[in-house]
Design brief:
The chain is built from four helices and five strands; from the N terminus they run βααβαββαβ. The protein has helices spanning 13-21, 26-35, 45-58, 69-78, and strands spanning 8-11, 40-43, 60-61, 64-65, 81-83. The strands form two sheets. A three-stranded parallel sheet has the order 1-2-5.
Amino acid sequence: MMSWKPPQVAFETRHLVKALFDPTTVEAELMGVAARGDVEITATRSAWNGVLWLIQSTVKEGGRPLYSGEELAKLRADLPVRWS
């Protein structure tokens, strides 16, 4: 008996950025679909590193990054993405 697997969608850094920062994009909609388990989003660790660089470089308060490494690790863990 075969078990059902959702279709896979591969995200690159640009897709992750769109999904996280613009809720009106197809990528953001796919994140919601993935959270329901109807599609599996895959992304590489280097794609996540690109998102980290963007956040740490641009989201600052008083010249310092607004988010801690712990907060960013939680964000990554909470995303419906299978990292490879």
